[in-house]
Amino acid sequence: MKNLLAPSTLEFTHHRNPAALAEMERAEILSDPGFGKHFTDHMVDICWSARGSWHRPRVQPFGPIELSPAAAVLHYAQEIFEGLKAYRHEDGSIWTFRPEANAARMQRSARRLALPELPTEYFIESLKQLIAVDGDWVPTAPDTSLYLRPFMFAKEAFLGVRPAEKVNYYVIASPAGAYFKGGLSPVSIWLSANYSRAGRGGTGAAKTGGNYAASLVAQAEAYDHGCDQVLFLDSEENKYLEELGGMNIVLVKKDGTLVTPASASILEGITRDSILQLAEDRGHRVERRQVTIDEWREGAASGDIVEAFACGTAAVLAPIGTLKADDFEITHEGGELALSLREELTGIQYGRIDDRHGWMTRLDA
Ligand code: PLP
Ligand code: COI
Q1: Residues 128, 183: Cα–Cα separation, whole Å
Q2: Same domain as 336, residue 214
Q3: Which ligand has the nearest atom to the CA of 317?
Q4: Is pLDDT of 327 > 90?
């Protein structure tokens, strides 16, 4: 749904949290943030209605959202979200990475879920507004960041099945350390034999809660097999690599070629796109095409495929050490290219390396 009524700017009102954490308490959280466990003092809240478009933008105390038990999202899961990070640079300034790409993806997700499209400038402004009050929550330790989680859902109290006419957009923020407990050590992946994440014509390419709900039993199976993440294959032929529960996947060949699945039912990761760009800049060939599990298996056995890695905003980039399946296992040693691309990407994100692609946006000015 396009918003023809949208004004060109939004005037945010700020309602300060009287119970904001004291500096000491915040510092303790920031010293070991984990992932997704702690939240900042404020959140952004913007309303949308079919008649009035986007309105009442505000920054308010982080806290419960009042919701009718008949709110459409609770019944029909009309919801989308995004994930990006705020990085503290050496000089104290606060930046984020390719927010216009997240805004565009949220618009694509909105179209698929019949939700209103939030204009890119509102999306970026909402992040700046939150950082204006919660900037002190952006940690300073190496490899830490403030994870920003914009999301939008159907708030209308109505049990008929149709696109909601009342929707809210929010942004919450959560200080983040490493996504995987093992830090940079290689992760293990479980190949899901029984479950698909998405199918043709479905919502796989949208960042919507239902895709993650559909992945949970498969992810639980991965944990049961001692693995960190689950890998899904395509739902029709059960042979082409798709993606992990919350990350994209890339294979590296002996000749330096990077191969990654092309599929209409996976989430087009901004981290993957950026890493592949950095690899191309270095002269690596990049192939975005269908990849079968047999190609990986045989390539790993013959030495033609030498590395594999997972990538996404939360995880950044993690070498895959093992893929476990019911009846076979693939292992990779090292992960040199993966780690060197991770170093370059994070170098740009944390302002240590020149941002030659113009990927960074300052949030605190
Ligand atoms: N695939 C899935 C299912 C994800 O949840 C994510 C994380 O957001 C990604 C891929 C990677 O996307 P991005 O690099 O934009 O974070
Ligand atoms: C992200 O990387 O932003 C995600 O949404 C993935 C999720 C596993 C936290």
Answers
A1: 29
A2: yes
A3: 1
A4: yes
High-pLDDT (> 90) share of the chain, %: 94
d(CA 315, CA 231): 15
CA distance 87 to 351: 9
> What residues form DSSP beta bridges with 286?
258
* Closest C-alpha to ligand 1, atom 12: 269
Q: Tell me, using a 6 A CB cutoff, whether residue 314 lines ligand 2.
A: yes
pLDDT of residue 2: 47
User: Residue 11: what are its φ and ψ, rounded to 5°?
Assistant: -95, 105
Cβ–ligand 2 contact at 246 (below 6 Å): yes
Residues 165, 226 within the same domain: no
What is the span of the domain harbouring residue 204?
187-349
Q: Whose CA is nearest to atom 3 of ligand 2?
A: 83
pLDDT single digits (tens) 274-304: 999 999 999 999 999 999 999 999 999 999 9
Q: Indicate whether residue 145 lines ligand 2 (CB < 6 A).
A: no
Q: Are residues 284 and 246 in the same domain?
A: yes
User: Residues 303, 278, 313, 136: is their CA dihedral positive or negative?
Assistant: positive
Query: Which residue reads 């308490």 in tokens?
Result: 25
**Which neighbouring-strand residues pair with 46?**
169
**C-beta separation of 167 from 115 below 8 A:** yes
Amino acid at 214: A
Per-residue 3-state assignment (H helix, E strand, C coil) for 70-88? CEHHHHHCCEEECCEEEEE
Residue range 150-174: average pLDDT?
98
pLDDT at residue 178, as a whole number: 82
Residues 116 and 254 in one domain: no
Verify whether ligand 2 is closer than 6 Å to residue 261 (CB atom): no
Final residue before a domain boundary, out of 118, 153, 176: 176
Q: Please state, as a whole number, how many other Cβ atoms lie within 10 Å of the Cβ of residue 353.
A: 14
Residue 4: what pLDDT?
44
Output 81 or 181, whichever has higher pLDDT: 81
Q: Of 49, 54, 52, 69, nearest to 163 (Cα)?
A: 49
Whole-structure pTM value: 0.96
pLDDT in tens, 30-45: 999 999 999 999 999 9
